[in-house]
Amino acid sequence: MKKEGKPEREGSEFSKEQIETICVILIIKGR
């Protein structure tokens, strides 16, 4: 766990949902 001066509230539930969405978009664009 690394902390780069960012609150856990701004990079917890937002990161998970954003990563999943980005992953889906990347997969669709990659194919």
Secondary structure: elements and pairs:
Layout: H1 13-30
The N- and C-terminal alpha carbons lie at a distance of: 33 Å
Report the mean per-residue pLDDT as an integer: 77
User: What is the string of SSEs from the N terminus onward?
Assistant: H
Number of helical segments with 4 or more residues:
1
Characterise the protein shown here.
It is a single chain. The chain is mainly α and 31 residues long. The protein is elongated.
Attribute tags:
31 residues; mainly alpha; 1 helix; 58% helix; elongated
Characterize this entry briefly:
This protein has 31 residues and is mostly helical. It has one helix spanning 13-30.
